[in-house]
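In response to the reviewer comment on reproducibility (Comment 2.3), we provide here a single inverse folding case reported in full, input and output, so that an independent group could reproduce the run without further information from us. The structure tokens appear first.
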């Protein structure tokens, strides 16, 4: 389901429920290498970013149980510092600046690989390994949004886990490389239309 107009208490609830489910997600492992801090980091990350995604007219999809969160965000709209509500919570993590490094890197890759004549949304999937059926139901919803609202859809990931299934959904690999001297492999896939 597409989330719209969330109140602060809804954002807080979503963040609290999702954080323990995604603290082993590779993106959060990169952004917060400290195991003991990662769940709190994931919660602060969601509480900070969900209002901004909504303000920027990005799309947030989830299921009724909040087992999976999919964000369709513009790769070209991001700041390079934390500001406003929730910024203080993010700044307390010593690794928080990796968020901007990751976003900047993604924006650069999208600039090089994606067509420039259409709007673009980058799909990030936040889920554990146990809810693939929910993931792909929401991916279908994301594809429908892409078609109905006329934007190109790119899937970005630091894991190879869902790549073959995404190919079955008509995504093709446009970029794949080791990410920033880490053990993670970044893959960007574009939906063929």
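Designed residues, in position order:
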């Amino acid at each position: 389901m597409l989330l719209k107009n969330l109140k602060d208490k809804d954002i807080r609830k979503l963040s609290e429920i999702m954080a323990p489910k995604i603290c082993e997600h590779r993106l959060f492992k990169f952004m917060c290498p400290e195991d003991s801090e990662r769940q709190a980091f994931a919660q602060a990350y969601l509480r900070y970013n969900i209002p901004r995604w909504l303000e920027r007219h990005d799309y947030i999809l989830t299921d009724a149980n909040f087992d999976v969160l999919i964000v369709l965000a513009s790769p070209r709209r991001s700041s390079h510092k934390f500001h406003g509500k929730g910024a203080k919570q993010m700044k307390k993590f010593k690794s928080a600046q990796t968020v901007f490094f990751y976003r900047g890197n993604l924006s650069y890759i999208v600039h090089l690989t994606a067509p420039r004549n259409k709007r673009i949304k980058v799909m990030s999937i936040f889920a554990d390994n146990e809810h693939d059926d929910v993931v792909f139901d929401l991916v279908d919803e994301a594809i429908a949004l892409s078609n109905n609202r006329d934007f190109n859809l790119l899937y970005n990931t630091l894991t190879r886990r869902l790549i073959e299934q995404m190919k079955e959904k008509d995504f093709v690999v446009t970029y794949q490389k080791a990410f920033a001297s880490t053990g993670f492999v970044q893959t960007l896939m574009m939906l063929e239309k």
